[in-house]
Model the fold of this input.
Amino acid sequence: MDALRRRPNPPDVRWLGGHRGLEDGIVPGAGIALRRLALRSLRTVDRDVHLVLDPLRLGLSLPQALVILARERPAAIFTTGGYVAIPVLLAARLLGIPTLLWEGNIVPGRSVRATAGLASAVAVSFTATCEALGLAGAGPAEAGSARPCLETGTPIRETRTIDRLAARERLGIAAGEQLVLVFGGSQAVRRLNDAVAEVLPRLVERVHLIHVTGDAGYAAALAARARLGDAQRPRYRPAPFLRDDMLEALAAADLVVGRAGSSTLAEVTAMSLPMVVVPYPHAGGHQRANAAILSEAGAARLVDDAAFDGPALLEALRILDDPSTHARMGAAARALGRPGAAEAVATMLLALADRRPIPDAQAIARIARGDVA
Done:
Protein backbone atom coordinates (compact mmCIF):
# COMPACT_ATOMS: atom_id res chain seq x y z
CA MET A 1 0.00 0.00 0.00
CA ASP A 2 2.76 2.47 0.92
CA ALA A 3 4.55 1.66 -2.33
CA LEU A 4 1.44 2.73 -4.24
CA ARG A 5 0.85 5.80 -2.12
CA ARG A 6 4.41 7.02 -2.71
CA ARG A 7 3.86 7.12 -6.47
CA PRO A 8 3.10 10.37 -8.29
CA ASN A 9 -0.67 10.60 -8.67
CA PRO A 10 -1.26 7.57 -6.42
CA PRO A 11 -4.19 5.38 -7.38
CA ASP A 12 -7.42 5.12 -5.45
CA VAL A 13 -7.30 1.80 -3.58
CA ARG A 14 -10.35 -0.16 -2.42
CA TRP A 15 -10.60 -3.50 -0.65
CA LEU A 16 -12.96 -6.31 -1.59
CA GLY A 17 -12.94 -9.05 1.06
CA GLY A 18 -15.05 -11.58 2.86
CA HIS A 19 -16.24 -12.26 6.37
CA ARG A 20 -14.34 -13.94 9.22
CA GLY A 21 -11.07 -12.25 8.29
CA LEU A 22 -8.97 -9.45 9.78
CA GLU A 23 -10.34 -6.84 7.40
CA ASP A 24 -12.79 -5.25 9.85
CA GLY A 25 -10.18 -3.52 11.96
CA ILE A 26 -7.18 -3.23 9.68
CA VAL A 27 -8.61 -2.00 6.40
CA PRO A 28 -10.78 0.94 7.54
CA GLY A 29 -8.02 1.90 9.97
CA ALA A 30 -5.68 2.29 6.99
CA GLY A 31 -8.13 4.64 5.30
CA ILE A 32 -9.24 2.14 2.66
CA ALA A 33 -12.86 1.64 1.63
CA LEU A 34 -13.99 -1.91 2.46
CA ARG A 35 -16.58 -4.00 0.60
CA ARG A 36 -17.50 -7.59 1.52
CA LEU A 37 -18.69 -10.60 -0.40
CA ALA A 38 -21.08 -13.16 1.01
CA LEU A 39 -18.41 -15.81 1.51
CA ARG A 40 -16.05 -15.91 4.45
CA SER A 41 -12.36 -15.07 4.02
CA LEU A 42 -11.37 -18.45 5.42
CA ARG A 43 -12.97 -21.69 4.28
CA THR A 44 -13.96 -24.04 7.09
CA VAL A 45 -12.34 -27.46 7.45
CA ASP A 46 -14.50 -28.60 10.36
CA ARG A 47 -17.52 -30.85 9.91
CA ASP A 48 -20.12 -28.27 10.86
CA VAL A 49 -22.87 -26.30 9.19
CA HIS A 50 -20.33 -24.12 7.39
CA LEU A 51 -19.12 -27.13 5.43
CA VAL A 52 -22.46 -26.88 3.61
CA LEU A 53 -22.85 -23.10 3.74
CA ASP A 54 -19.41 -22.20 2.39
CA PRO A 55 -20.08 -23.57 -1.14
CA LEU A 56 -23.42 -21.75 -1.15
CA ARG A 57 -21.71 -18.52 -0.11
CA LEU A 58 -19.16 -19.05 -2.86
CA GLY A 59 -21.92 -19.42 -5.42
CA LEU A 60 -23.62 -16.24 -4.22
CA SER A 61 -20.35 -14.31 -4.23
CA LEU A 62 -19.68 -14.64 -7.96
CA PRO A 63 -22.67 -12.55 -9.13
CA GLN A 64 -22.02 -10.22 -6.21
CA ALA A 65 -18.41 -9.73 -7.36
CA LEU A 66 -19.59 -9.22 -10.94
CA VAL A 67 -21.95 -6.43 -9.87
CA ILE A 68 -19.33 -4.69 -7.71
CA LEU A 69 -16.58 -4.86 -10.33
CA ALA A 70 -18.90 -3.87 -13.18
CA ARG A 71 -20.02 -0.82 -11.22
CA GLU A 72 -16.61 0.30 -9.93
CA ARG A 73 -14.53 -0.81 -12.94
CA PRO A 74 -11.11 -0.98 -11.27
CA ALA A 75 -8.10 -0.54 -13.56
CA ALA A 76 -6.48 -3.64 -12.02
CA ILE A 77 -6.91 -6.07 -9.13
CA PHE A 78 -4.29 -7.36 -6.72
CA THR A 79 -4.89 -10.55 -4.75
CA THR A 80 -2.97 -13.00 -2.59
CA GLY A 81 -5.12 -15.83 -3.91
CA GLY A 82 -7.06 -16.87 -0.83
CA TYR A 83 -10.52 -18.40 -0.81
CA VAL A 84 -12.12 -15.00 -1.33
CA ALA A 85 -10.10 -14.54 -4.53
CA ILE A 86 -12.01 -17.25 -6.44
CA PRO A 87 -15.17 -15.24 -7.28
CA VAL A 88 -13.17 -12.02 -7.68
CA LEU A 89 -10.76 -13.53 -10.22
CA LEU A 90 -13.60 -15.23 -12.08
CA ALA A 91 -15.55 -11.97 -12.26
CA ALA A 92 -12.47 -10.02 -13.34
CA ARG A 93 -11.77 -12.53 -16.11
CA LEU A 94 -15.36 -12.22 -17.39
CA LEU A 95 -15.14 -8.41 -17.33
CA GLY A 96 -11.66 -8.16 -18.86
CA ILE A 97 -10.08 -6.56 -15.79
CA PRO A 98 -6.36 -7.40 -15.42
CA THR A 99 -5.31 -9.13 -12.19
CA LEU A 100 -2.05 -9.70 -10.34
CA LEU A 101 -1.78 -12.64 -7.93
CA TRP A 102 1.05 -12.74 -5.37
CA GLU A 103 2.16 -15.89 -3.53
CA GLY A 104 4.70 -15.78 -0.70
CA ASN A 105 5.36 -19.46 -0.02
CA ILE A 106 7.61 -21.67 -2.08
CA VAL A 107 4.89 -24.34 -1.98
CA PRO A 108 1.63 -22.62 -2.97
CA GLY A 109 -1.55 -23.47 -1.12
CA ARG A 110 -4.58 -25.08 -2.67
CA SER A 111 -6.47 -21.84 -3.22
CA VAL A 112 -3.51 -20.30 -5.04
CA ARG A 113 -3.05 -23.37 -7.21
CA ALA A 114 -6.74 -23.22 -8.05
CA THR A 115 -6.77 -19.52 -8.95
CA ALA A 116 -3.33 -18.80 -10.46
CA GLY A 117 -4.59 -19.77 -13.90
CA LEU A 118 -7.17 -16.99 -13.73
CA ALA A 119 -4.65 -14.20 -13.05
CA SER A 120 -3.16 -12.00 -15.76
CA ALA A 121 0.25 -12.16 -14.06
CA VAL A 122 1.79 -13.77 -11.00
CA ALA A 123 4.36 -12.41 -8.55
CA VAL A 124 6.19 -14.77 -6.18
CA SER A 125 8.70 -14.66 -3.36
CA PHE A 126 10.65 -17.66 -4.66
CA THR A 127 11.35 -18.56 -8.28
CA ALA A 128 10.55 -22.22 -7.63
CA THR A 129 6.93 -21.22 -6.95
CA CYS A 130 6.48 -20.46 -10.64
CA GLU A 131 7.40 -24.04 -11.47
CA ALA A 132 5.05 -25.34 -8.77
CA LEU A 133 2.25 -23.35 -10.41
CA GLY A 134 3.11 -24.67 -13.87
CA LEU A 135 4.44 -21.28 -14.93
CA ALA A 136 8.15 -22.07 -15.12
CA GLY A 137 9.93 -20.16 -17.83
CA ALA A 138 7.23 -17.50 -18.01
CA GLY A 139 9.48 -14.79 -16.63
CA PRO A 140 10.04 -12.01 -19.19
CA ALA A 141 6.70 -10.56 -20.17
CA GLU A 142 7.92 -9.68 -23.64
CA ALA A 143 8.79 -13.34 -24.32
CA GLY A 144 5.19 -13.88 -25.33
CA SER A 145 3.90 -15.49 -22.16
CA ALA A 146 0.23 -14.85 -21.59
CA ARG A 147 0.81 -15.13 -17.84
CA PRO A 148 4.23 -13.86 -16.69
CA CYS A 149 5.47 -15.20 -13.34
CA LEU A 150 8.15 -12.99 -11.79
CA GLU A 151 10.11 -13.16 -8.55
CA THR A 152 9.57 -10.00 -6.50
CA GLY A 153 10.20 -11.21 -2.96
CA THR A 154 7.71 -10.57 -0.18
CA PRO A 155 6.40 -7.00 0.23
CA ILE A 156 7.37 -5.73 3.68
CA ARG A 157 7.52 -2.51 5.61
CA GLU A 158 10.29 -0.08 4.67
CA THR A 159 13.54 -1.25 6.29
CA ARG A 160 16.15 0.81 4.50
CA THR A 161 15.64 3.97 6.53
CA ILE A 162 16.02 2.34 9.95
CA ASP A 163 19.23 3.19 11.82
CA ARG A 164 20.68 0.18 13.68
CA LEU A 165 22.80 2.22 16.08
CA ALA A 166 19.87 4.48 16.97
CA ALA A 167 17.61 1.46 17.51
CA ARG A 168 20.16 -0.16 19.85
CA GLU A 169 20.57 3.08 21.75
CA ARG A 170 16.82 3.41 22.26
CA LEU A 171 16.70 -0.16 23.54
CA GLY A 172 19.65 0.38 25.86
CA ILE A 173 21.95 -2.18 24.19
CA ALA A 174 25.52 -1.10 24.87
CA ALA A 175 28.37 -1.51 22.40
CA GLY A 176 29.76 -5.01 22.63
CA GLU A 177 26.52 -6.48 23.98
CA GLN A 178 24.40 -8.84 21.90
CA LEU A 179 20.65 -8.95 21.37
CA VAL A 180 18.61 -12.00 20.39
CA LEU A 181 15.03 -11.67 19.15
CA VAL A 182 12.74 -14.70 19.59
CA PHE A 183 9.27 -14.69 18.04
CA GLY A 184 6.91 -17.13 16.41
CA GLY A 185 3.31 -16.10 15.84
CA SER A 186 0.06 -16.29 17.75
CA GLN A 187 -0.65 -19.92 16.81
CA ALA A 188 2.91 -21.20 16.53
CA VAL A 189 4.85 -19.70 19.41
CA ARG A 190 4.35 -22.21 22.22
CA ARG A 191 7.36 -24.34 21.25
CA LEU A 192 9.58 -21.27 21.29
CA ASN A 193 8.12 -20.04 24.59
CA ASP A 194 8.81 -23.39 26.24
CA ALA A 195 12.41 -23.37 25.04
CA VAL A 196 13.00 -19.86 26.42
CA ALA A 197 11.44 -20.75 29.78
CA GLU A 198 13.62 -23.88 30.07
CA VAL A 199 16.94 -21.99 29.94
CA LEU A 200 16.04 -18.34 30.61
CA PRO A 201 18.61 -17.62 33.38
CA ARG A 202 21.42 -19.02 31.24
CA LEU A 203 20.24 -17.09 28.20
CA VAL A 204 20.24 -13.70 29.85
CA GLU A 205 23.67 -14.30 31.35
CA ARG A 206 24.98 -14.20 27.79
CA VAL A 207 22.67 -11.92 25.78
CA HIS A 208 19.86 -9.43 25.92
CA LEU A 209 16.62 -11.13 24.90
CA ILE A 210 13.49 -9.68 23.33
CA HIS A 211 10.85 -12.41 23.45
CA VAL A 212 7.53 -12.05 21.61
CA THR A 213 5.30 -14.47 23.50
CA GLY A 214 1.82 -14.04 22.06
CA ASP A 215 -1.10 -13.32 24.38
CA ALA A 216 -1.24 -16.83 25.82
CA GLY A 217 2.40 -16.90 26.87
CA TYR A 218 2.83 -13.39 28.19
CA ALA A 219 1.76 -13.91 31.82
CA ALA A 220 4.12 -16.88 32.22
CA ALA A 221 6.96 -14.88 30.70
CA LEU A 222 6.35 -11.99 33.11
CA ALA A 223 6.41 -14.42 36.03
CA ALA A 224 9.68 -15.91 34.78
CA ARG A 225 11.16 -12.42 34.47
CA ALA A 226 10.17 -11.64 38.05
CA ARG A 227 12.13 -14.68 39.25
CA LEU A 228 15.36 -13.46 37.64
CA GLY A 229 18.00 -11.68 39.70
CA ASP A 230 18.19 -7.91 39.75
CA ALA A 231 21.13 -7.84 37.33
CA GLN A 232 19.48 -10.22 34.85
CA ARG A 233 15.93 -8.90 34.86
CA PRO A 234 16.54 -5.84 32.60
CA ARG A 235 18.15 -8.11 30.00
CA TYR A 236 14.87 -9.99 29.39
CA ARG A 237 12.05 -8.13 27.65
CA PRO A 238 8.92 -10.20 27.01
CA ALA A 239 6.04 -8.70 25.04
CA PRO A 240 2.81 -10.25 23.74
CA PHE A 241 3.30 -8.51 20.37
CA LEU A 242 5.60 -5.82 19.00
CA ARG A 243 3.62 -4.58 15.99
CA ASP A 244 5.08 -1.15 15.13
CA ASP A 245 8.19 -1.82 17.25
CA MET A 246 9.13 -5.01 15.40
CA LEU A 247 11.31 -3.31 12.81
CA GLU A 248 13.27 -1.49 15.51
CA ALA A 249 13.82 -4.79 17.34
CA LEU A 250 15.01 -6.43 14.12
CA ALA A 251 17.33 -3.53 13.37
CA ALA A 252 18.89 -3.80 16.81
CA ALA A 253 19.17 -7.60 16.88
CA ASP A 254 22.25 -9.73 16.27
CA LEU A 255 20.36 -13.00 15.83
CA VAL A 256 16.74 -13.96 15.21
CA VAL A 257 15.08 -17.19 16.32
CA GLY A 258 11.67 -17.78 14.79
CA ARG A 259 9.30 -19.45 12.38
CA ALA A 260 9.48 -19.49 8.58
CA GLY A 261 6.51 -17.44 7.45
CA SER A 262 7.13 -15.53 4.25
CA SER A 263 6.96 -12.07 5.85
CA THR A 264 9.24 -13.08 8.72
CA LEU A 265 11.93 -14.37 6.37
CA ALA A 266 11.59 -11.31 4.14
CA GLU A 267 12.14 -8.86 7.00
CA VAL A 268 15.00 -10.88 8.50
CA THR A 269 16.87 -11.11 5.20
CA ALA A 270 16.18 -7.46 4.37
CA MET A 271 17.93 -6.64 7.66
CA SER A 272 20.86 -8.97 6.77
CA LEU A 273 20.33 -10.97 9.96
CA PRO A 274 21.48 -14.53 10.68
CA MET A 275 18.59 -16.70 11.78
CA VAL A 276 17.81 -19.92 13.56
CA VAL A 277 14.63 -20.98 11.82
CA VAL A 278 12.17 -23.44 13.37
CA PRO A 279 9.54 -24.11 10.68
CA TYR A 280 5.99 -24.67 11.85
CA PRO A 281 5.39 -28.36 11.10
CA HIS A 282 1.76 -28.09 10.01
CA ALA A 283 -0.10 -26.15 7.29
CA GLY A 284 1.10 -28.41 4.49
CA GLY A 285 4.79 -28.08 5.25
CA HIS A 286 4.97 -24.66 3.57
CA GLN A 287 7.28 -23.25 6.21
CA ARG A 288 9.83 -26.04 5.95
CA ALA A 289 10.17 -25.41 2.23
CA ASN A 290 10.56 -21.68 2.91
CA ALA A 291 13.18 -22.34 5.60
CA ALA A 292 15.17 -24.66 3.35
CA ILE A 293 15.88 -21.75 0.99
CA LEU A 294 17.63 -19.81 3.77
CA SER A 295 19.36 -22.87 5.17
CA GLU A 296 20.76 -23.98 1.82
CA ALA A 297 22.01 -20.45 1.12
CA GLY A 298 23.85 -20.36 4.46
CA ALA A 299 21.69 -17.59 5.93
CA ALA A 300 20.01 -19.72 8.61
CA ARG A 301 20.33 -22.80 10.76
CA LEU A 302 17.26 -25.00 10.39
CA VAL A 303 16.04 -26.83 13.51
CA ASP A 304 13.03 -29.13 13.30
CA ASP A 305 10.13 -28.19 15.54
CA ALA A 306 10.32 -31.48 17.46
CA ALA A 307 14.03 -30.95 18.15
CA PHE A 308 13.77 -27.37 19.35
CA ASP A 309 14.09 -27.02 23.12
CA GLY A 310 16.13 -25.10 25.68
CA PRO A 311 19.47 -26.79 24.88
CA ALA A 312 18.86 -26.21 21.15
CA LEU A 313 18.28 -22.53 21.87
CA LEU A 314 21.53 -22.30 23.82
CA GLU A 315 23.30 -24.08 20.97
CA ALA A 316 21.98 -21.41 18.61
CA LEU A 317 23.92 -18.77 20.51
CA ARG A 318 27.15 -20.29 19.25
CA ILE A 319 26.55 -18.34 16.05
CA LEU A 320 27.23 -15.21 18.09
CA ASP A 321 30.45 -16.66 19.50
CA ASP A 322 32.05 -16.99 16.05
CA PRO A 323 32.35 -13.61 14.30
CA SER A 324 33.27 -15.20 10.95
CA THR A 325 30.22 -17.48 10.99
CA HIS A 326 27.98 -14.60 12.03
CA ALA A 327 29.33 -12.37 9.25
CA ARG A 328 29.03 -15.13 6.65
CA MET A 329 25.41 -15.83 7.57
CA GLY A 330 24.61 -12.12 7.54
CA ALA A 331 26.09 -11.76 4.06
CA ALA A 332 24.06 -14.73 2.84
CA ALA A 333 20.90 -13.19 4.28
CA ARG A 334 21.72 -9.89 2.58
CA ALA A 335 22.03 -11.66 -0.79
CA LEU A 336 18.54 -13.12 -0.33
CA GLY A 337 16.97 -9.89 0.90
CA ARG A 338 14.46 -8.07 -1.29
CA PRO A 339 13.87 -4.76 0.50
CA GLY A 340 12.26 -3.31 -2.63
CA ALA A 341 9.72 -6.11 -3.05
CA ALA A 342 6.74 -3.82 -2.48
CA GLU A 343 7.99 -1.47 -5.21
CA ALA A 344 8.45 -4.42 -7.56
CA VAL A 345 4.90 -5.64 -6.98
CA ALA A 346 3.54 -2.10 -7.36
CA THR A 347 5.43 -1.75 -10.66
CA MET A 348 3.80 -4.91 -12.02
CA LEU A 349 0.35 -3.89 -10.82
CA LEU A 350 0.50 -0.38 -12.29
CA ALA A 351 1.75 -1.74 -15.60
CA LEU A 352 -1.34 -3.96 -15.74
CA ALA A 353 -3.56 -1.04 -14.75
CA ASP A 354 -2.10 1.13 -17.52
CA ARG A 355 -2.27 -1.74 -20.05
CA ARG A 356 1.51 -1.48 -20.50
CA PRO A 357 3.92 -4.42 -20.84
CA ILE A 358 5.19 -5.65 -17.49
CA PRO A 359 8.95 -5.08 -17.11
CA ASP A 360 11.06 -8.16 -17.68
CA ALA A 361 12.38 -10.42 -14.92
CA GLN A 362 15.76 -8.67 -14.73
CA ALA A 363 14.18 -5.23 -14.30
CA ILE A 364 11.80 -6.49 -11.62
CA ALA A 365 14.69 -8.22 -9.82
CA ARG A 366 16.68 -4.97 -9.73
CA ILE A 367 13.74 -3.11 -8.22
CA ALA A 368 13.17 -5.88 -5.65
CA ARG A 369 16.81 -5.83 -4.56
CA GLY A 370 16.60 -2.08 -4.13
CA ASP A 371 19.15 -1.41 -6.88
CA VAL A 372 16.93 1.20 -8.53
CA ALA A 373 14.55 3.82 -7.20
